[in-house]
Amino acid sequence: MTLTRNDFRFFHTLRVRWSEVDMQRIVFNAHYLTYLDTAMADYWRALAVPYEAAMVMLEGDLYVKKATVEYHASARYDEVLQVGLRCLRIGTSSITFQGAVFHGDVLLITAELIYVFADPASQKSRPVPEALRALLTGYEAGVPLIQTHTGSWESLGGRITPLRHRVFNLEQGIDANLMCDEEDHGAVHAVALNGLGQVVSSGRLLVPTTGTGKIGRMATEKALRGQGFARYVLHALMRASKDRGDAGILLHAQVSAVGFYLKEGFAPIGPEFEEAGIKHQSMEIRWTEQVVP
User: Fold this and answer.
1) Residue ranges in the chain modelled with pLDDT below 70
2) Coil, helix or strand at residue 184
């Protein structure tokens, strides 16, 4: 059976670099395995899974047992390629992925990658955890990967705090004492959970003091940014604000995230300012002017 682009749900796009081609500007055959491995990292991101943390939670890791490649046509310098991957089957301890590289609709290579789930210390095989099995089969079947929940700090705080620590304290260098405060206890909190039940994004909506709610403490796993998962949290908080009758929402966006909030209907207010050593921009949305997603 000849594979086509329609056989894959997931694609990773890349451009052939000069260092990957020979004197005829044709890609060296070994580089296709690198393309597949690079695509695999994005496959896990598409599943909303921070790979390293997930494997620690599952008490194992995936090791390549076998990789086979069949060549059909050549890729050339500066061409844009699409690398397709899909989970083909899951055995007791092995997971088989099928891969293909396309230039447009032209099939360049097909591949089969067999991984074994094993103990990281002994590297002895273990049964594929049911949670991982369900995650992979669900993704390939088109099952939604993200679940959004809202609740109190008492119900969600224990799951939110580790994410805040990784993002605000370890990554951004913000004082650990500023990660959580008394306002958390009266706020509405939202989390985005992946298929393994991990919190991949979170945020809070404070009690309004002047009729306007305030969103803050927005955090997303570093490895998963750019996938749209923070949008699930933002939309949940926007709905909560609308439902309780707020006039609108104010937030202090880190300057690097201003574009994200602009796309969601927020408008800048005043000049940039510094908060916790990071440049911010005040932004606002009014419900009389906007429709909640």
Assistant:
1) 289-293
2) helix
